[in-house]
Amino acid sequence: DAKTTQPNSMESNEEEPVHLPCNHSTISGTDYIHWYRQLPSQGPEYVIHGLTSNVNNRMASLAIAEDRKSSTLILHRATLRDAAVYYCILSYSGGSNYKLTFGKGTLLTVNP
Amino acid sequence: EADIYQTPRYLVIGTGKKITLECSQTMGHDKMYWYQQDPGMELHLIHYSYGVNSTEKGDLSSESTVSRIRTEHFPLTLESARPSHTSQYLCASSEVTGNEKLFFGSGTQLSVL
Question: What is chain B's mean pLDDT, rounded?
């Protein structure tokens, strides 16, 4: 299985941008890059996913390196509610057999 | 907003009891999952299902069992609970088209005394 590497923790200030890095040097050509986050005492929630091109949605942006061996989740203006564990995950296999394997993620602390 | 529900939210029981953790979703998703998570640790996939009458074991061996008699319902059962089963259990669902996002419930925190 392709693995991802993320920093254990990061810190940010409120209303500043946050760049959460993820390395996935063994990614295969068909693997999608997914990001989820888990707030305290909650189940994970979907943030964004992409294959090759950069992606934007109302929650965040996903910047994917040209060689696809790394990606960055960008929160444009961090709020206190963004404090969570952020997981970078590669899809395992494609089609209907895909499943997601979660690592330990990055604990994001947002300072007021 | 996720339409997937887990009950109970918290459960404290004694060793040897049989328990069933409930999970229901109203999104009509065919694929459902159970993950297990200890505090501060990663999620481990223990069971999943492609649809009615389909159940598969996940990456982490588990003494629990699951059933899928109805599309919307995916209960997890422990026949004889032990302290080693103490953990958070998270249920999720997705469409089967591949690379679709997972919707998670809020989880059941199980404590076996």
Answer: 92
- Asked if A103 is an interface residue toward chain B (Cβ–Cβ < 8 A), one would say yes
Task: Decide: helix, strand or coil at residue B75.
Answer: coil
- Model confidence over A45-69: pLDDT tens digits? 999 999 999 999 999 999 999 999 9
Give which of A33, A22, A5, A44 is closest to B104, Cα–Cα. A44
pLDDT tens, residue order, chain A (112 aa): 568 999 999 999 999 999 999 999 988 888 889 999 999 889 999 999 999 999 999 999 999 999 999 999 999 999 999 999 999 998 865 555 566 778 889 999 999 9
Termini Cα distance of chain A:
39
Residue pair B9/B94 in contact by the 8 Å Cβ criterion: no
**Residue A3: partners with Cβ closer than 8 Å, 6 or more residues away:** A24, A26, A90, A103
Closest CA of chain A from B58, distance in Å: 10
Are B107 and A43 a contacting pair at CB < 8 A? yes
> Are B42 and A100 a contacting pair at CB < 8 A?
no
State residue B69's pLDDT score.
97
How distant is the Cα of B79 from the closest Cα of chain A, in angstroms? Answer: 25
